[in-house]
Amino acid sequence: MSPRTARTARTGGTARTASFAGALAAALLLAACAQAPAARPAAPSPAPTAAAPLPASAPTPQGTLLVADFGADTVTFVDPERGPIGSVPVGTAPYGLAVGADGRAWVATAEGVAVVDTRTRARIARIPYRTATGPVGDGEYRGGGMGIALAPDGARAYVGVNVPGTNGVLEVIDTAQREVTATVPVGRRPFDVDVSRDGSEVYVTGHDSFDVTVVPAGSLRPRRVEVAPYGTEGGLGSWLKPHYTAVRPSDGMLLLPFEGERLAVVDPRTGRTTIEPLTADTHQHGATVTPDGRLLVVGTGAVDPSDGRGPSLTVRAPDGTERVYPLSGPHEDVAVSRDGRTAYVTGGHTRDGYWNGITVVDLDSGESRRLPAGARPLGIAVL
Question: Is 265 within 8 Å of 317 (Cβ atoms)?
Answer without folding.
Answer: no
